[in-house]
Amino acid sequence: MAHTVIEKKKYTYEDYLNINDDKRYELIEGELLMTPSPVPGHQRISGKLEFKLRKFITENNLGEVFDAPCDVYLDNENVVQPDILFISKERLNIIGEKNIQGPPDLAVEIISESSAYRDLVQKKKLYARFGVKEYWIVIPEEESIEIYILMDNTYHLNKTYSKDDILESPYLKDLKIGLKEIFEFIKISK
What we know:
A hairpin with a 2-residue loop joins strand 4 (about 70-75) and strand 5. The protein has four helices and 13 strands. The chain has one domain: tt1808, chain A (Alpha-Beta Complex). The protein is globular and about 45 Å long. By secondary structure, it is an alpha+beta fold.
């Protein structure tokens, strides 16, 4: 019996740009991945975290903060949309007219059921490979944030912060975020 081999298409940035629907996508290792809209709890956390980060970055004139959806072009087969990203003032030249053209200094991903594998495995490897200095993984169910720092092209867990902790960034010196207010109200009845 003959077997039919179906070759999976590798997508490029040009293919990604030619998608003509209302869905959100990311391109990881040439694989086109649909990204569902975030749930309200995710958006609450994202908004609060981004507000604190943006306030600190702006007050200290450190660079710029963006949030999804915002394309980060890493190469022709890798285009991602971190939930929140920071680009230092020394690297603002990577901000293009249509996208960010290179890795941010800090990427923040908020885990959801549909994004867990992508954020914890695929994007973590990708961000390390392209040199994102610090990576935060926010886990709403556990009300925690894991901070990873890049050393020798690999992420190492710097610290896990829980709801009652004050998050301190190794890369952004003097940044302190009380997580109690970030995680309050996320467990609203369904």
